[in-house]
Design a protein that fits this description.
By secondary structure, the protein is of the alpha+beta class. The protein is 21% helix and 32% strand. The strands form 3 sheets. It has a 3-stranded antiparallel β-sheet with strand order 1-4-5, covered by helices on one side. Strands 2-3 form a two-stranded antiparallel sheet. The protein has a two-stranded antiparallel ribbon with strand order 6-7.
Length: 155
């Protein structure tokens, strides 16, 4: 649930949120097309932009925008990563503002598969830390940094 992610970010920043809201924009495809899972008919949703905002008072303090497309050409007015890459953009507004794009996979790799592999890697690489941890519920905040075996090297 997106609101959970907003709460986790706020908690890690020691920020109290008063409310969380959501808003969605839909992009309707003017033409039919097929993707491996099914055919998409003209006049149906082919892209979705969702914004979840956590407010402290009247000001949005933690915002998550999620854009999902059924094909790269859908919703050209929605933000994209460079060269239409699949992945995530993180923007931290402040002094200085920081922006980074996290590209998943490459042009020959399906972005959904890359996302699944990245998620599985975190779960698998968390097992040793969870085995050493005290019993109970754990999150990234209660565990040490998670690295793959041999991923962290001395410099």
């Amino acid at each position: 649930e997106a609101a959970t992610a907003i709460r986790m970010v706020a908690d890690n920043l020691a920020m109290k949120l008063d409310s969380i809201t959501g808003h969605a924009e839909y992009w309707i495809t003017p033409e039919a097309f097929a993707i491996p899972a099914f055919k998409v008919e003209a006049g149906t949703v082919a892209a979705l932009k969702v914004r979840i905002s956590g407010f402290a008072g009247a000001a949005p303090r933690v915002i998550q925008d999620r854009i999902m497309r059924l094909r790269a050409e859908a919703a050209p007015e929605f933000p994209t990563l460079r060269n239409g890459a699949l992945g995530y953009r993180v923007i931290i507004e402040g002094a200085p503002t920081i922006q980074t794009d996290i590209v998943l996979g490459d042009s020959a790799q399906n972005g959904v598969v890359a996302t699944q592999l990245a998620t599985a890697a975190i779960a698998v690489n968390s097992v040793p830390a969870l085995c050493r941890a005290s019993p109970g519920f754990h999150t990234f905040r209660t565990l040490p940094m998670i690295f793959g075996d041999g991923a962290a090297c001395a410099v």
